Amino acid sequence: MDEDDTSIPEAAPAPLVIDVEFVEKEISSPQFEELGQAEIREPLNLPRAEKTHAGKARVVSVINQKGGVAKTTTVINVATHLAINGVKVLVIDCDSQGNCATGFGIDKSRIRYGTRTLMTSPEDSIRARHATAIENLHLIVGDRSLVGIEDELVSQLGRERLLSEGLEPLLPHYDLILIDTPPSLGLVSINALVASDAVVIPVQTEYFALEGLALLASTIREIRHRLNPRLGVDAVIMTMHAPTLLNGQVAAQVRETFPDLVVDPPIRRNIRLAEAPSHGTPIHIHAPKSAGGQDYANLSNALKELWGFGEKNE
Ligand SMILES: Nc1ncnc2c1ncn2[C@@H]1O[C@H](COP(=O)(O)OP(=O)(O)OP(=O)(O)O)[C@@H](O)[C@H]1O
Ligand SMILES: [Mg+2]
Fold first, then answer.
1. Per residue in 172-216, pLDDT tens?
2. 197 CA distance to ligand 2 centroid (A)?
3. Is 105 in the pocket of ligand 1 (CB under 6 A)?
4. 52-313, CATH topology level
5. Which is nearest to 80 in space by CA: 234, 288, 271?
6. Helix (H, G, I), strand (E, B) or coil at 45
7. Is 78's C-beta closer than 6 angstroms to any atom of ligand 1?
C-alpha cells in the first residue's frame, strides 16, 4: 500500500464562536415552553419492595447507571442522618472510585479488606467492616481492587450471588445496609441488585435524566424474574434541583414516569453538599442547617418512616 494512503485528511477547523457572552440565563419563548416529545412519558410500572424479614437488615441499593446523579452523596448523607438517629447502618461501597471512604474521611489506601473481600472470600466478611467517626455507622470500602473483578468472575458459577452470600452473616447485626453502586449495570451492580430488598433511584432533574431509566427499569424486572423475586423499588428521588424552568419540567416528567414512587420535594442543588466530601464529613456534620442538610434530613426522615425504623428505635 502506498504510504500516503495511511494518512488521514486534516480535520476541518471547527467554526469559532467569538464574542458570545456566557451568561446563564433562562430562555423563555413559546418554542422552549415544552420539552420535546422524545423522552419517556408513559409511567414505568415498577413493583414496590416488600417488608424486610424480622431480625434482618433491610438491604437497599442506591442505583442509577447514569454517572454523577448523587448516588454517593445520597448514600453518605442518608446513612449518616439515620445513624445519628439511632438506626444501625452499614454502608457498602461497590464502586471502584471509592468515593464513600473519602466522604467519610477514611484513608482507603490503608484498608486491607473491603467490598472485594465480601465478593471473593465471604468467610472474611466480618473483617471487612470498618467503624466511621459516626456512631452506629460502619463502612465496607470500595477501591481500585474492584476494577477487573467482572472479567475475573466471568466463568465463576453463581457469580451474580457473590455479594448476597458475603452479606448473609452481616444481616442480623444492622437495621439497614445501604449499597452505593457504580455508574454501570455490570456484574457488580447486578450483584448489588441480587443482594437487595429494594432500590432507591436518584434522578438528576436535568435533560438527559430520563433516558437511561427504561433500561434500569427493565434490568430491575429481569433480576426480579430470574434472580431475586423480592426486589422492588422503595423510592425515586430527584437530586441537584435548581429553580429553573428546565429543572421544573424534568421534575414534572419524573413524577409522571414514577407516579407512586417519587419522594417530594427534590434535593436542591447546594454548594455545601458539594464541598462536604472535601472535608471528609457528611452534610449533617459539615453544615446541618444548609439547604442541602435540611433536604437530606427530610429525605432521610421520609425513608425512615417508609422503612419502619421509627417504631423500632424509639
Ligand atoms: N444537591 C447537590 N448540590 C450540589 N452538588 C451536589 C449535590 N449532590 C451531589 N453533588 C455533587 O455532584 C457530584 C456528583 O455527585 P455524586 O458523586 O454523589 O454522584 P454519583 O452518582 O455517586 O456519581 P458516580 O456515578 O460517579 O458514582 C459530586 O461532586 C457531589 O459533591
Ligand atoms: Mg458515586
1. 999 999 999 999 999 999 999 999 999 999 999 998 888 889 999
2. 20
3. no
4. Rossmann fold (3.40.50)
5. 288
6. coil
7. no
